[in-house]
């Protein structure tokens, strides 16, 4: 599916089948590809088949990058077609595991909220923000939905603001305040015969829709290829002609950061980094009927990895781990100049 294809023009069943076939060709990317396929199946209404894909991932002998995310998605999907008891059990398991990734927390909390389990949703959002944001100077972007979701549920419960709500307000950037967006009484204004009230509500809905579009948009990234030190050493030992592209690992890392900053300063949006491996690169070269020693394959390989969902957004949050794999915060590593 092209990234600019309107959602209403997508054959979700066909797209899911295409992603499943692609997962068979690239087993190292099966987790990301099958999760996208399951999402298409859920949208198409074939929720049992989506559950089959989640079970396929969870029963795989391969180690999953984010098993808690898969379980959370499975629970949310199960609840939508009548398997409430199983969904609740999985949700409790995700909460007990206390994942460090905010995405599983968001999914299970919103599943509870969607089914009017507001107290349980509030407890889940609160548990997540305390687990992930206590003593954190600035909440990373991926944790913002936790703060916003908690704020939304608390407004529906009529609970007074607390320090986490204040933090949600501080990271909210839309022109319409969170209190307005999450006002439980807004639904009544949609039935009003007062044109001024209707116009005000339309403006709020447009702002909210813009936020959802921004959150859900995953346009095709401009991705730069990154080789970890061990992979680059193996690559140059096998294909020494590529040494002209990579004089040293330190220069390689510096070139990536400078290239991305140059693209950013020119206004190029949605930048990312993809990490290569020698076996994957060799397989790609074979699929292109070419030699891995051909340097013109490198940008094509990066583009292919990005198309398979392997790109990581750049730049990271200043307090997040640097993209280079050093283990240091980005602000103290390659983000030093940016900070």
TrEMBL record:
Pfam families from the UniProt entry: SEC-C
* Parts forming coiled coils: none
Q: What is the protein named?
A: SEC-C domain-containing protein
Query: What organism does this protein naturally occur in?
Result: Streptomyces venetus
């Amino acid at each position: 599916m092209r990234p600019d294809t309107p959602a209403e023009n997508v054959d979700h069943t066909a797209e899911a089948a295409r992603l499943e076939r692609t997962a068979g060709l690239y087993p190292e990317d099966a987790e990301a590809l099958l999760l996208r396929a399951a999402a298409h199946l859920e949208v198409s209404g074939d929720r049992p088949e989506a559950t089959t894909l989640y079970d396929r991932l969870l029963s795989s002998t391969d180690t999953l990058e984010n098993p808690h995310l898969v379980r959370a998605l499975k629970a949310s999907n199960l609840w939508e077609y009548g398997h409430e008891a199983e969904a609740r059990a999985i949700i409790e398991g995700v909460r007990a595991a206390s994942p460090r990734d905010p995405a599983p927390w968001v999914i299970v909390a919103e599943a509870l909220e969607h089914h009017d389990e507001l107290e349980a949703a509030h407890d889940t959002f609160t548990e997540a923000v305390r687990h992930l944001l206590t003593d954190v100077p600035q909440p990373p972007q991926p944790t913002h939905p936790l703060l916003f979701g908690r704020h939304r549920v608390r407004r529906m419960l009529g609970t007074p603001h607390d320090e986490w709500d204040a933090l949600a307000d501080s990271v909210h950037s839309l022109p319409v305040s969170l209190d307005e967006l999450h006002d439980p009484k807004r639904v009544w204004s949609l039935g009003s015969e007062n044109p001024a009230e209707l116009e005000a509500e339309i403006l709020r809905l447009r702002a909210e829709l813009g936020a959802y579009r921004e959150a859900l948009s995953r346009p095709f990234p401009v991705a730069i290829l990154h080789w970890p030190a061990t992979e680059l050493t193996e690559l140059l030992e096998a294909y020494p002609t590529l040494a002209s592209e990579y004089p040293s690992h330190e220069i390689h890392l510096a070139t990536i950061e400078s290239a991305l900053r140059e693209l950013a300063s020119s206004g190029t949006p949605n930048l990312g980094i993809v990490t290569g491996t020698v076996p994957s690169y060799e397989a790609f070269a074979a699929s292109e009927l070419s030699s891995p020693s051909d340097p013109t394959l490198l940008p094509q390989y990066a583009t292919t990895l990005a198309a398979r969902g392997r790109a990581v957004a750049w730049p990271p949050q200043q307090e997040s781990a640097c993209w280079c794999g050093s283990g240091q915060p980005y602000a103290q590593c390659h983000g030093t100049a940016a900070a």
